[in-house]
User: What shape does this take?
Amino acid sequence: MIEDLVSKVNELKKGEVGKLIAQRLQEFKNLSRKGNEEWFSELCLCILTADSTAKLGIKIQRELDSKGFLALSEAELREKLRQLGHRFPNKRAQFIVEARRFCNIKIIVKKFKNVQQAREWIQRNIKGIGWKESSHFLRNVGFGDIAILDRHVLAVLREHRLIDEVPRSFTRRSYLKIEEKLRKFAHGLNLSLGELDLYLWYMKTGAVLK
Assistant: This one.
């Protein structure tokens, strides 16, 4: 089963999907050079995608842009999220407004010795952000050596017997255990964890998003 997954990923690497993923990785690298405002917008995207969809989160991010995430009142933000179709406009608006105290998020992240320490801090200190969302944010701003264990990726891993079952929730230990398995698998494919995530996500969704 693992061999089958290796074959599928290698096949995707050769075609249009591989080109799209290379383009997406370049976008992440470009974003890594941007400032606090753009990084904060990406953090808000990851708050919005929790218990929702990446497609909707991206739509809202494009509509509001970084200015909206930083400037709208909680009531205005709540109404915008409701109009744009988010399932949890009240909570997500609250989380985004509370996260504004970390609007210098790039400066904060850059102070840590490594991406693992940064992720630990983010998921402990920013409401609405767990292991998956903090990994998603950091991957999108250019850090490759972390796994985004969302339901689509976990389903692929389960189907190919890299894991026995899909966890209902994560502890620090359980997240890192699966991430390490995936790291070894990615290494064998000569991919970063962030890059492998895009291939696995494509296999379930047929899309290459961020």
